[in-house]
Amino acid sequence: VSQKGVEVCWGRGEPSLFTCHNTVINGAGEQITYRKSYRYEATGGPMGMRVQEVIKGTGDSGFYHCRVQVPGLFNDQTSTVHLIIINRTLTSLYLFVYLFDSRL
């Protein structure tokens, strides 16, 4: 996120009202502040944050949510993605999950 003080987090499952739920990666600006596993990677720049996940199997299916934590009451922006994986014979797969235009 290009605006100072704005955090972006990704979580598994449905988002809660005020925070990320089951956070997998969290960052502010171009700095990652938390990563649950090496499987989650984020790159950023002035256009936003790009998050990737290394898919290991159908267990990675499910809901993921992104929360942009904008200062002020009820200013946060939340998006939800439903990831569906069909079993294949791949050993691993890089998946581009989401590109969020975070210019605020």
Helix fraction bin: under 10%
Major sheet strand order: 3-2-1-6-7
The CATH homologous superfamily is called Immunoglobulins
What's the pLDDT, averaged over the residues?
75
Cα gyration radius (Å): 14 Å
User: Spans of 5+ residues with little confidence (pLDDT < 50)?
Assistant: 96-104
> Can you write the helix and strand succession as a string?
EEEEEEEE
Q: For the record, what CATH class applies? A: Mainly Beta
Q: What is the CATH architecture assignment?
A: Sandwich
Structural class: mainly beta
CATH domain fold name: Immunoglobulin-like
Gap from first CA to last CA: 9 Å
Summarize it:
With 104 residues, the chain is mainly beta. The chain contains no helices and eight strands. The N and C termini lie close together (9 Å).
